[in-house]
Amino acid sequence: PDVIIEAQFDDNDAEHGQDHLQDVLTDDIKKLSLDTGEKGKAAGVHRTKQDDGPKVNDPRLLPDEFLQRTAKVVYILEKKHSRAATGFIKLLADRNSELFKRCAMFSPVDHRVPRVYVPLADCPPDFVTKPEAYSQMLFICRIVDWKEDSNFASGQLCKSLGQAGEIEPESEGILTEYGVDFSDFSPEVLECLPQNLPWVISPGELAKRRDLR
């Protein structure tokens, strides 16, 4: 079977130059050739002289299917996520750390969203003394930062939604995550609607419109 050789390219490789990367690839290809040769002997596979093709020492001459292309993210053009998530809060595991006195852990329901450190000041006043009372309470958290040297993002609790499993809190959480504005219409918007009720479509409008009712 075809084998794909993956080469990791980082800043150290850039310092040594492209020749260093090619040398690494060449060594990997040689090792792969030796391993497959030994496996062939163990399985009783015999090669004829016609099977032995030319040896390729330059990775640039190899077919594309033997190489794994790699890339590096250099810039974020547009943030598609609202940075808001629905989840639960809990105390940190290490009670002796300084972080325990300042932050709580927010665990999103959507596992694609990272866990978030949130300030204890954003949590309910009795959360530290009675964390079990909020174990099934849904909260909305908004991510504000994520440092490169941290496994967890930093965020702020926006509001408490209510008990998990109930329709209204769950629905509000989904709408907030996707950035849907579900607030009430303003009086200016409501004034644009017909005021004389009951309202009916006029024959003139029906004549020039397609009826999709």
TrEMBL record:
SUPFAM superfamilies per UniProt: Nucleic acid-binding proteins
Subcellular location, principal: cytoplasm
Positions of region (Disordered): 38-59
Stored InterPro entries: Dis3_CSD2, NA-bd_OB-fold, RNR_Ribonuclease
Compositionally skewed regions (Basic and acidic residues) per UniProt: 48-59
GO molecular function (one): metal ion binding
GO cellular component entries: P-body
Highest taxon, organism lineage: Eukaryota
Keywords: Cytoplasm, Exonuclease, Hydrolase, Magnesium, Metal-binding, Nuclease, RNA-binding
Magnesium among keywords: yes
Subcellular location: Cytoplasm
GO biological process: miRNA catabolic process; mRNA catabolic process
Residue ranges occupied by any CSD2 domain in the UniProt entry: 104-179
Name by which UniProt lists this protein: DI3L2 exonuclease
Protein species of origin: Prunella himalayana
Gene from which the chain derives: Dis3l2_0
